[in-house]
Specification:
The protein is mostly beta strands. The chain is built from one helix and eight strands. The strands form two sheets. A four-stranded mixed sheet has the order 2-1-3-6, with no helix packed on it. Strands 5-4-7-8 form a four-stranded antiparallel sheet, with no helix packed on it. The two termini are about 15 Å apart. The site of copper (II) ion has 7 residues, from loops.
Length: about 150
């Protein structure tokens, strides 16, 4: 599994969330992430990351983040309504609307070198597992679901 990366992650990054996890796991000095800033069409501000909401988990396309502005493409892949709320230093609450099954929305946030809480504010979802911490600045976030869970 030590295959070298031979493609760029910009345009395909959103579709290859799992690849992002694998690559981020290498933890090496990887400035190439910033190569994704090439604008492509109507690309929103900042770097892109995908967030998948399911019943009842939150999965991010990458485990490590460097400080900067991100547009999180949030998709509700579950059956219940979900939303993404980001809490952390530097900005007040930042959340999507509640998304019905299959819906998606973009959420832009500027992250500093801090730890942020990504969670679902709907009902009691946060307590039952829809919460994940994101430590910005190169450290791997202490996610509860480190395993690959199929694709
Ligand atoms: Cu939820």
């Amino acid at each position: 599994m030590s295959r070298k990366r031979v493609f760029r992650r910009d345009a395909v990054g959103a579709a290859l969330g799992i690849a992002g996890l694998v690559l981020a796991g290498c933890g090496g000095p990887d400035g190439a992430d910033d190569a994704a800033s090439q604008p492509a069409g109507d690309q929103p501000a900042g770097k892109r990351a995908t967030v998948t909401l399911t019943d009842f988990r939150i999965e991010l396309s990458q485990k490590t983040f460097t400080p900067g502005t991100y547009t999180f493409v949030v998709t509700n892949d579950g059956k219940a309504p979900h939303a993404l709320d980001i809490e952390g230093p530097g900005f007040d609450e930042n959340s999507t609307e509640t998304l019905d099954a299959g819906e998606s929305a973009n959420l832009t946030a500027t992250l500093g070198a801090e730890t942020y809480d990504f969670y679902c504010p709907v009902s009691n979802h946060r307590e039952i597992g829809m919460e994940t911490k994101v430590a910005v600045g190169g450290k791997e976030a202490p996610t509860t679901d480190g395993g690959t869970n199929g694709y």
